[in-house]
Amino acid sequence: MLTIDLHTHSTASDGTLTPAQLVDKAAAAGIRNLALTDHDTTAGLAEAQAAADKHAIRLINGCEISVSWSQTTIHVVGLNIDPDNQTLQQGLSGLREYRDWRAREIARKLELYGLENAYEGAAAFAKGELIGRTHFAHYLVQHGHAESIRQVFKKFLVKNKPGYVSGRWAALGDVVDWITAAGGQAVIAHPARYSVTRAKLLRLLDEFREAGGIGLEVVSGSHSRDEYQTMAKHAENKQLKASAGSDYHGPENPWIELGRLPALPDNCEPVWQDWPQLS
Ligand code: AMP
Ligand code: MN
Ligand code: MN
Ligand code: MN
Questions:
Q1: Ligand 1 nearest-atom number relative to CA 133
Q2: What DSSP designation does 158 have?
Q3: Pocket flag, ligand 1, residue 7 (CB < 6 Å)
Q4: Which residues pair with 8 in a beta bridge?
Q5: CB 262 within 8 A of CB 4
Q6: Residue 39 CB–ligand 1 contact under 6 Å
């Protein structure tokens, strides 16, 4: 089992635990090195750091940034970023502005479909400074329009469904630049989750590396064992380092637990290989 987890969420984005609760839970689960990687914000990091200081846990400053690449939404995790970096913060604030426009657009579409007040409803679930699709999902489950978060996505929030709005996020090269400007390392999140062909995924990895990206999340809470092996092979072939993260969003998603990530496959070079202070 790994004692490192480089991909987690809090109430600063679409997780359901506060940053402090997340850190407490990670410490209790045996995590020694934890990255908080909220979507398009670093707002939870200060609270997470204060909580980490109380435990024998090292916090890695992170974020998970939304990218549009070749008509596909891709998530890029930035690790060891300086949250005070202006280039990074300007980029993230542009994404949050887009998120607010998109949230109103999702609500407008849901209203055409007959579901009212979705913007206000989703906003009530958003505890941080941004609204995501997960917040809409919580609202729609609360009002009985679907039985689970997963069901809401399937019924309302994905392509060809009533509340779908196609993402217009940041460019891949820009996002890698922001992360690098902030002193961090860029890693492609959950690479097996994108609905792209193998050839297109390999093209993404080439472009990502060309842009200055250094890692691939080989072990992810959303990957199968077979996918660990496939992604480890891709990382090796493309000379990318391997990362590992649960993508934990809170206890509502019991299929992903903290402290349960298996070791990286043998052929991997860990992204944390040269990091100081790892215990
Ligand atoms: P957004 O960035 O607002 O478009 O929302 C993306 C987030 O929605 C992801 O980070 C997941 O937390 C969640 N999500 C995406 N697809 C699903 C799904 N099929 N079931 C449950 N949650 C999902
Ligand atoms: Mn999420
Ligand atoms: Mn993601
Ligand atoms: Mn995530």
A1: 3
A2: S
A3: no
A4: 248
A5: no
A6: yes
CB atoms within 10 A of CB 153: 19
Distance 114 CA to ligand 4 centre (A): 30
Indicate the pTM of the whole model: 0.98
- Structural tokens at position 237: 């072939």
Tell me phi and psi for residue 139, to 5 degrees.
Answer: -65, -45
Q: Kind and range of the H or E element at 120? A: helix 118-125
**One digit per residue, pLDDT tens: the chain, 279 residues?**
999 999 999 999 999 999 999 999 999 999 999 999 999 999 999 999 999 999 989 999 999 999 999 999 999 999 999 999 999 999 999 999 999 999 999 999 999 999 999 999 999 999 999 999 999 999 999 999 999 999 999 999 999 999 999 999 999 999 999 999 999 999 999 999 999 999 999 999 999 999 999 999 999 999 999 999 999 999 999 999 999 999 999 998 888 999 999 999 999 999 999 897 665
Q: How far does CA 11 lie from the centroid of its chain?
A: 13
| Among protein residues, the one whose CA lies closest to atom 5 of ligand 1 | 133
For ligand 1, atom 4, the nearest C-alpha belongs to 133
Number of helices (H) and strands (E) in the chain: give both, helices first. 9, 7
